[in-house]
Design goal:
This protein has 174 residues and is an alpha+beta fold. It has 4 helices and 3 strands, in the order H-H-H-H-E-E-E. The protein has a 3-stranded antiparallel sheet, covered by helices on one side. Helix 3 runs antiparallel to helix 4. The longest helix is centred in the middle third of the chain and has 45 residues, at 36-80.
């Protein structure tokens, strides 16, 4: 029984011998492992590359969404400060273009719609300006299977028009 215990829990000599056996065994069987690292790398890359592409697509979508939202908010704010609908159209569109220009390459293309139909004609009337900005982001460059070539993100913002400002254009009030 004592011999079994010694065999079951080897001392330092037994442990050193087992380590040497493992090292010797790996050295003699090394030829069978050739190319396994290359194969593992290929398998890992085929899984990791699409995942990284999807993460990049989400990043581009987030950037495009915030770019469109910021441009729409700036345009609505600028348009609502105008004195008449025509000036509101021009100022809103220019503010959106300026905001999109600061974002540089976030949007491959964009569409800006400034709706001044809620612009009041007379002071004291409530009104608002609505701006919609469409930002098209390119996804084809990511080369991830299953992703569309482009994605259009839309942001709409409203801004109240100051109801106590003369909007008739003649400088006088009622």
């Amino acid at each position: 029984m004592t011999a079994e215990r010694i065999h079951a829990s080897p001392g330092q000599h037994g442990l050193a011998r087992r380590i040497q056996d493992v090292v010797t065994d790996r050295a003699t069987h090394r030829g069978g492992d050739r190319g396994s690292y290359t194969l593992e790398a290929i398998v890992c890359l085929t899984v990791l590359v699409p995942i990284l592409g999807i993460i990049a697509a989400f990043g581009l979508a987030g950037l495009g969404d915030s770019t469109a939202a910021n441009a729409a908010a700036a345009a609505a704010r600028a348009a609502s400060e105008s004195d008449d609908p025509d000036t509101a159209q021009t100022r809103g569109r220019q503010a959106a273009l300026d905001s999109l220009g600061q974002a540089q390459r976030a949007c491959a293309s964009s569409d800006i719609v400034v709706d001044t139909s809620g612009f009041p004609a007379d002071p004291g009337q409530p009104g608002s300006v609505t701006v919609r900005v469409d930002c098209t982001i390119p996804l084809a460059k990511l080369a991830v299977p299953g992703l569309p070539g482009t994605k259009t993100l839309t942001a709409t913002r409203h801004s109240a028009v100051d109801r106590y400002v003369d909007r008739t254009g003649d400088g006088g009030g009622p």
